[in-house]
Write a structure and sequence with these properties.
elongated; 173 residues; 1 helix; single chain; four-stranded antiparallel beta sheet; Immunoglobulin-like
Length: 173
């Protein structure tokens, strides 16, 4: 029995090592500004700042400003990338009874050029940016559930696409 246990432990270590190696191949460390190389979680690339809750006039169109921040040294493609092969920022909204999102306005992107290709321009968001959601709500409390889908990159490489959950309590009065 001890030999079987040793074989299982060795197999478990090999599987763990293989998983770690696969993670490096599949999702390599993202080099950050200053030459440091560390794994960056795509979920940490963009943060939803506010609001957590809002009150809007019932049965009237209102605008909710959704504030986001892209981590320092990173950018995400705007909602209208200049190269159609790039992944645009998108906000997917889950329909909720008593709450209707009629439109979402994205800000224009900022032109950005990579050092290795200064003539090729990208349309990106960096730092803080605001989306304007146009909503109508019935009286009472509702939950606006959405997801900001994006792909974060730095000057050298991009992370896998990610969807950041967004949840806001909307009260119609």
């Amino acid at each position: 029995m001890p030999r079987l246990t040793a074989m299982l432990v060795a197999a478990g270590l090999a599987a763990s090592l293989s998983a770690a190696v696969w993670a490096q191949i599949k999702d390599p460390p993202l080099p950050l500004p200053g030459g440091a190389s560390q794994r960056v979680d795509p979920a940490a690339a963009v943060e939803f700042l506010s609001p957590g809750q809002v009150t809007v006039p019932a049965h009237r169109t209102a605008q909710i400003d959704l504030r986001f921040r892209v981590a320092d040294g990173l950018h995400i493609n705007s909602h209208a990338p200049l190269d159609k092969s790039l992944i645009p920022a998108r906000l997917a909204v889950v329909e909720a009874h008593g709450l209707n999102v009629t439109a979402v306005d994205f800000p224009p992107g900022t032109e950005y050029a990579l050092q290795f290709s200064p003539r090729e321009k990208l349309s990106v968001y960096t730092g803080e940016f605001v989306l304007h959601a146009h909503v109508t709500a019935d009286p009472g409390a509702h939950v606006l559930e959405a997801g900001l889908h994006y792909q974060a990159c730095n000057a050298n490489s991009c992370m896998p696409p990610h969807t950041l959950p967004v949840e806001i309590t909307v009260t119609g009065k």
